[in-house]
Amino acid sequence: MDGRMTRSGDPTLRLAVHPYREGWATHPAKGPVDECGVFGIYGHPEAARVVYHALIALQHRGQESAGIVTADGANLYTHRGLGLVSDVFEKPESMARLVGEIGIGHVRYATYGASRLGNAQPVVVNTRRGGLALAHNGNLVDAPVIRHRLEEGGAIFTTAIDTEVLAHLIVRSRAASIEEAIVDAINQVHGGYALLILTEDRLVGIRDPHGIRPLQLGRLNGSWVLASETCAFDTIGAEFVREVAPGEMITISEHGKLRSQSVVKEPARPRPCIFEFIYFARPDSNLAGVNVHSVRKAMGRELAREAPADADIVIGVPDSSISAATGYAEESGIPYEMGLIKNRYIARTFIMPTQTGRESALKLKLNPLRKVMEGKRVVLVDDSIVRGTTSRHLVKLLREAGAREVHMRIASPPYRYSCPYGIDTAQSGELIARGREVDEVRDAIGADSLAYLSLEGMVKATGLPVDGPGGFCVACFTGDYPVPIPEDLDKYMLEGGKGR
User: Which among 36, 231, 273, 476 is annotated as catalytic?
Assistant: First the structure.
């Protein structure tokens, strides 16, 4: 989808996307959440090309849609589409249209059937202040309530994503400047988010008050860059400067002048998502100043100390569990083997939107090495068990390949609670560890033994000077949500589902 947005004196909000309503009309507390990747750059003559390469580096964070919006000081230019970054921007003309030295990009996966072009980001709007584009990673937990209120007041929505709620709030603000309008809007919403906003002449980056979702600041020669992960900086040759602080808003304008301010009315305790370390982030990224691969390897070491196994080989589930598996092998002294071969052309099954899609993909995704497995007692290390679909399939695969015993070791605690801050996991009833003891989960997946890393061991493995689990958002393990969730608002009501 391509488009050019020019200045307009019309104060109403006009979305440069096809009208699409998914569930909202019949229930105000419905809509999707997403786990995504964002990237922005200010002051580069080939902004679109840089954003494109950075999005490829962030492709692991979402494979269902991608988009880029650029600005040249007077207009916004946009291209969005469904599919991988390379597919969306396959035609040379799609990049040629994206002129200007400022740009933002987004990769997304959708939840509960929300994989529609109309929901692809960045969201682009035309306002009385000019064009505005928003790219968002995370979820605003009160977006359905706010949306309902806005609709009751006559607002017209054309997407099913919570990012559009924020766009409406910015547009409706009576603040004197766009920065003040953004601050006004941000203080009306709650959740976990990393947000990039592009105007015709500036780039704005904001991180939620608890720092749940990651956002990094870097430099590319004379240009400023913002990204979900530092691996994007490595890809484009940028230098990491620092993390955007929780509750911080960075504005870059006027020939690259950077201004930082806090948008938090009351200080909040930093609670970055520990699941970024466990699964989502690329192993070559750094979060909170530590390398993700090193943390995962340390988690594997802790797991070996806490849950030893009498076995012949250790194997890891590609790719996110390889680091933990090598750590387990080194600490335990059991040889590490490459026991599973991954098909690189299958999307991450954890973030596929339907159970049928996940099960079909699993059959194509991994193949065991029979010669490695035959007659062996195997320690199978994985980063987490969410629904249990993957684990059951893997145990079955290893047994069919000749494994004599399969001992499952998980480099995180039991996953028992849904995430309302932008990670699609499952409804509470679909989480295999919810309401089950470890031995019951073991029987359900068919393993000879099963053990999880403790909460304390997981936090210790990060090597960060935090005060125990309270230094992170660990709500998916404990149910302790740092941002309160409306009592009548289940995560899957947010996604257009039926709730618990």
Answer: 36
Q: Would you call 318 helix, strand, or coil by DSSP? A: coil
pLDDT digits (tens, 9 = 90+) for 319-362: 889 999 999 999 999 999 999 998 877 654 444 555 555 555 66
DSSP letter for 428, please. Answer: G
CA distances from 369 to 22, 181, 222, 338 (A): 44, 57, 49, 8
419: annotated active-site residue: no
CB count within 10 Å of CB 205 equals 27
Strand stretches in 279-421, DSSP E: 286-287, 290-291, 313-316, 340-342, 366-368, 377-382, 405-410
**Cα–Cα distance for residue pair 403/373, rounded to 1 Å:** 5
Q: Which residues of the chain have pLDDT under 70?
A: 1-34, 110-115, 346-363, 424-426, 487-500
Question: Which has the closest alpha carbon to 395: 442, 465, 464?
Answer: 442
pLDDT at 27: 28
Q: Which pair of tokens denotes residue 237?
A: 């040759």
Supply the pTM of this predicted model: 0.87
Domains delineated in the chain: 2-271 (3.60.20.10), 292-473 (3.40.50.2020)
Distances (CA, A) of 222 to 101, 180, 261: 12, 27, 22
Chain-centroid distance, C-alpha 272: 12
